[in-house]
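User: Structure with ISJ, tokens only please.
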Amino acid sequence: MILSSEGPSALRVRTTSIDVDTASGMSGLLDLLPTEAPVSWLRRGEGLVGWGIAAQVHTSGSTRFSDAAKWWAETTAQADITDEVQEPGSGLVCFGAFAFADEPGESTLVVPQVIVGRRGDLAWVTTVGDVAPTLARREPPAPPKGVVFSDGALDSERWMGVVADAVARINAGDLEKVVLARDLLATASEPIDVRWPLRQLAASYPTCWTFHVDGLFGATPELLVRRERGLVTSRVLAGTIRRTGDDSRDLALAAMLAHSSKDLEEHEYAVRSVAESLEPYCSSMNVPETPFVLHLPNVLHLATDVAGVIRDTDDVSSLQLAEALHPSAAVGGTPTPVARELITEIEGMDRGRYAAPVGWMDASGDGEWGIALRSGLLDGDTVRLFAGCGIVGDSDPAAELAESQAKFVPVRDALAPGPAPTS
Ligand SMILES: C=C(O[C@@H]1C=C(C(=O)O)C=C[C@H]1O)C(=O)O
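Assistant:
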């Protein structure tokens, strides 16, 4: 269902190339963001930022992806686009964040008034409508003030009880894996400027995708899907160990993770779900047999990069691929329908847009959609932080609680009033 859509029916779009130094400068694209409706999708200093709202749609229900895709098709068909850069992410671009479940929740696609992109040696600015963009370093954001954390929907004890229930259901043969999440509330004494946590996340987690769309922000290590000129890629994660802070112990842990049958089993479900969902759209695929260990500052993950070539005849957009892949077993479970039902039944929390596709798409359908993990939802002076864990037959509730705490760390630290990182 389309809940609302705003913006002129015919957008006037201009993309021109700019000096890479203007885009990256001393400190990066995030420094260009003003306070008005900033959006971002950045990794290692490259990607897209934008601000202002030229057009937006809100959708809901089981047709939230297809309604948004239809709106995008109409918007791009009517737009007058002059693009002198012709790269994925130049020309007309929307940013989006989708609800995890069919109900409740709202999804959105937004077209910023100004978008600045950087890819290798190229940089560009896109304007939508009559705007004269300011490409200058803005006044830095102030750190959040007086942040206190409190329990979300369930306290730790109750959440461990829910994990134990899930383990019992798995061992009774109802399903193989389910991902259970919890939330944590951060309340500040004044409204929080999202640009602060974005800078912290981009500096501390450069190998993750630092995103912000409509209040949902984070630094996700997991790429649900990228479509770029007929090639599709996905980074699948599942299987986690907390880092200790001691490099040699962490190396030993990485070796343990790579051989842990519990984690390999969890991982296998996640890779299989992605490969099976992509297969109908691909003429060939590469699915590595063995995962690698992805090192992040807070955790280690088992990771697999799946790649494929889209069938010639298929004009499937990155958003349609994201819909086909969501929810993968990395955030839902196996089998998916049973896992989704169990999540609704026992998780005791509304996921909102957590663990669902977040990212961007251009007029050709190329784009990148991450899974909104290591994320929080900002509303004024409050952030709801989310973290989840894959549960299988031999999961231990206390270990899963500790894993969820490690997954809160990126956003939790990003809300701390430490010194602004020099990125
Ligand atoms: C659900 C989350 O993470 C997912 C679950 C993982 C696991 O259970 O090992 C690992 C990476 C993600 O696919 C989260 O970060 O909230």
